[in-house]
Design goal:
The complex is a heterodimer of chains A (496) and B (211).
Chain A (H helix, E strand, L loop, with lengths): L20 H8 L10 H20 L7 H12 L2 H21 L3 H4 L2 H11 L2 H13 L2 H4 L3 H5 L1 H6 L21 H15 L7 H30 L37 H8 L16 H6 L7 H10 L2 H8 L29 H11 L18 H9 L4 E4 L5 E3 L2 H13 L4 E3 L16 E6 L2 E8 L3 E5 L5 E5 L2 H10 L6
Antiparallel strand pairs in A: 1-2, 1-4, 3-7, 4-5, 5-6, 6-7
Helix pairs in contact in A: 11-12, 12-15, 12-17, 15-16, 16-17, 18-19
Chain B lengths: L8 H9 L3 H23 L7 H14 L11 H19 L37 H20 L2 H12 L4 H8 L3 H23 L8
Helix pairs in contact in B: 1-2, 2-3, 2-4, 2-6, 3-4, 4-7, 5-8, 6-7, 6-8, 7-8
Classes of the chains: A alpha+beta (496), B mainly alpha (211).
Chain lengths: 496, 211
């Protein structure tokens, strides 16, 4: 716009650069400046408005329909401010979910976790820690204090430093009191529950920690029951008590070889306990263990939860390494395969307990529940008895002639009798002569089949009984000659 | 009717939403001329026959939206022109015309300014009604301006009309066009630049006549 020139005196004052008085004046004198809608259109619009007003007056309380509300909500959501806020919330949620998916140990603050762990420590643990600090080698003493004081970190670390066999300087710090360990594991599981992330790692860790803790509680209760049901010493044929196994040079035995007092009671066991004339007491008792070995080796049964927690948290390789017990030779310390008998696990190949726990965690909750209770070192025959009781029609007995006969109550009673007689089971490297001709051992080999496939072999030998579940380690229980003879004689013949 | 003369547009619309048909008649009487002009000029001469339809549709939208209408920072007038603008865009798109709402069609940062010489011989815009030759001049200028308006993109045309014809402030123009303030301001500046160029070229031959 020009404000100078010959006619600048007549130039109106412009309100701004965006307003032009000349253009406005020209617009005001345009030919259509006085245009107006036709009267018919006016009447039409006003008639429509009046009709709508009357209709609206007739239904003044008409609430907006769901569609109107949806449209109003959509228009509100389509506002830039609202949309931007919603997008921000979504982005924050996404980032939070990504962060949330990290493993718990990395996501949690170390200060709070260590503080919680310190609060969860029991006096017994403190005492053990003090003892371990006094006896631990310089390498362990050189570790940072936070690592030593954090039991959770100890449980995560591979069990190599404290669990290695040290004949001269045992490491009692790892052999914490079983009760304190179980309580700590339970507290740890309970503490982790609120922070349970949707990660398989955390779930596997919680399941691995909670399951052995429950087993320990169950073991305590069962141990009490066994003590109550234990017959008088005069009725016992085997010397299972500590007094019987006392320190003679011939009976000294490492703890790992000793049968673990880890009773996993099954319905069959309960049934067998109620049957008449058990040969021996069902409750095994711990044997004497040399102090050096006892400190280094985790106490069977009680230390099991701690070991399983370590296994679940470690990798497959570490789990395989943890399969071997700390102090005993690997050949003697092979753990019995869990779920070795019955169900689908009968046909599975031999796997370590660690690998099985990891596989169950990876397969989901359905796979974590075996069809047959896991055998305990004390009663490796328990799963077989349970499977025979629950799946009686599937099981059969292979005869010498190659034919199969049904497993009847008499045979089950005989097996229960064998279990009762064998108070002390040992892992054996030998396997039953499952392929041997039946004629060579006509009365001492009992071969059981499940669904037409070999399920278990029971072999009565001169020195005891050898039980081979075929899907795990074989077990041998030494028996007195008279008991062996009685078992051989009482093996029921095949039904005709 | 007399009792609604002094009420603002928002109050009249609220009264109509409650069933007062007279309030709507008052609103219609206030804005019908400006809205009709706006629609006609926005459509241009090629689509002027559709002006009645757009005008009616705009008012019917007001009628149908009476129950959920609520002043949300804009006046009723601004909302009314927004409805009309939307309806015009729909019509232009249906007719196959390209509607470039975000095209400024400017080559540089600043719109081109016309030569000042062309404007020196224009009569001053008078506040009252011009007489004689001035009236004839402005009528010719008005005709030319309508022609020049049709050469503008729709976005610039609507910004110019809302600001210069309907008297909306710049922020109201931005709100009616649902754009930012600076965007509306830029559109307006480009529109004025082009109109000045167009109008100056037209009026230049009048200079020798001593307009």
């Amino acid at each position: 716009m020009s404000d100078d020139g010959p006619r600048s005196r007549t130039t109106p004052s412009s309100p701004g650069p965006e307003h032009d008085a000349w253009l406005r004046e020209a617009l005001r004198h345009a030919p259509d400046a006085s245009a107006s809608p036709p009267p018919s259109l006016r009447e039409s619009i006003l008639a429509e408005a009046r009709a709508a007003a009357r209709a609206g007056w007739a239904r003044p309380a008409a609430a907006p329909s769901l569609l109107d509300r949806a449209l109003a909500f959509w228009s509100w959501l389509a506002r830039p401010q609202v949309a931007a806020g919603f997008a921000s919330v979504m982005a924050a949620t996404l980032v939070g979910m990504l962060w949330w998916d990290r493993p718990m140990d990395e996501a949690m603050l170390p200060a709070s976790s260590s503080r919680t762990a310190d609060q969860a420590r029991t006096p017994a643990q403190d005492a053990v820690s003090v003892a371990s600090e006094k006896q631990s080698p310089p390498a362990a003493a050189g570790k940072p204090a936070s690592q030593l004081a954090d039991p959770r970190r100890e449980s995560v670390s591979p069990p190599t430093t404290g669990a290695e066999p040290r004949p001269t300087t045992p490491a009692p710090a790892k052999a914490a009191p079983p009760s304190a360990t179980a309580e700590t594991a339970a507290k740890e599981a309970a503490r982790k529950q609120p922070y349970a992330r949707a990660t398989d790692d955390a779930r596997a860790r919680s399941a691995a920690v909670a399951e052995p803790a429950a087993k320990t509680e169950e073991a305590k209760a069962a141990r009490k029951d066994d003590k109550l049901q234990q017959p008088p010493p005069s009725m016992a044929m085997a010397p299972p008590t500590r007094a019987a196994a006392t320190p003679t040079p011939g009976t000294l035995r490492p703890a790992a070889e000793a049968p673990s007092p880890f009773p996993a009671r099954s319905p069959v066991e309960a049934d067998a306990a109620t049957r008449p004339a058990p040969l021996v007491a069902a409750a095994p008792s711990p044997t004497f263990t040399p102090p050096s070995v006892q400190q280094a080796a985790p106490e069977p049964g009680r230390a099991e939860p701690f070991a399983l927690a370590k296994k679940a948290e470690s990798t497959e390789k570490e789990g395989a390494a943890a399969k071997s017990r700390p102090t005993a030779p690997a050949a003697e310390l092979r753990a019995p395969a869990t779920g070795a008998l019955g169900g689908a696990t009968l046909d599975s190949s031999e796997a370590s307990a660690t690998g099985r726990v990891a596989a169950q965690n990876a397969a989901g909750p359905a796979a974590r529940q075996p069809a047959v209770p896991a055998p305990s070192p004390a009663r490796p025959m328990a799963p077989l008895l349970a499977a025979l009781a629950s799946e009686e029609t599937l099981w059969s007995r292979r005869l010498e002639s190659g034919e199969s006969a049904a497993v009847d109550a008499a045979l089950r009673a005989w097996l229960a009798q064998v279990q009762s007689a064998a108070a002390r089971w040992e892992a054996s490297e030998r396997s039953a002569r499952r392929d041997a001709p039946a004629a060579s051992f006509p009365t001492t080999i009992l071969r059981l089949e499940r669904g037409g496939r070999a399920g278990a072999v029971m072999q009565i030998e001169d020195g005891g009984v050898l039980f081979d579940p075929l899907s795990g380690s074989a077990w041998f229980a030494p028996l007195p000659p008279e008991v062996v003879a009685r078992l051989r004689a009482s093996l029921p013949p095949a039904p005709r | 009717m007399a009792r609604t003369d002094d009420l603002p547009d928002d109050a009249l619309m609220s009264a109509y939403a409650r069933g007062d048909a007279a309030a709507f008649e008052q609103l219609y009487a206030r804005h019908q001329a400006g809205l009709y002009r706006f629609i006609r000029r926005l459509l241009g001469s090629a689509l002027s026959a559709q002006a009645d339809e757009v005008f009616q549709d705009t008012w019917l939208k007001v009628v149908h939206a009476r129950e959920r209408w609520a002043p949300q920072g804009a006046t009723f007038r601004t909302w009314l022109f927004t409805l009309a603008h939307h309806r015009v865009i729909d019509l232009l798109r249906k007719s196959g015309r390209e509607v470039a709402l975000d095209a400024f069609e400017g080559d540089g940062d600043e719109p081109w300014q016309p030569d000042a010489e062309a404007w020196q011989h224009w009569p001053a815009p008078a506040g009252a009604a011009p007489q004689g030759e001035d009236l004839a001049f402005w009528r010719r200028a008005g005709e030319k301006l309508l022609f020049c308006l049709e050469q503008l993109p729709l976005a610039q045309r609507s910004a110019f009309l809302l600001h210069h014809d309907d008297g909306l402030a710049l922020d109201e123009v931005a709100r009616a066009l649902e754009v930012g303030f600076e965007t509306a301001k830029t559109r307006l500046r480009y529109a004025m630049s082009k109109l000045r160029t167009c109008m100056g070229a037209y009026l230049e031959p009048l200079q020798p006549g001593g307009a």
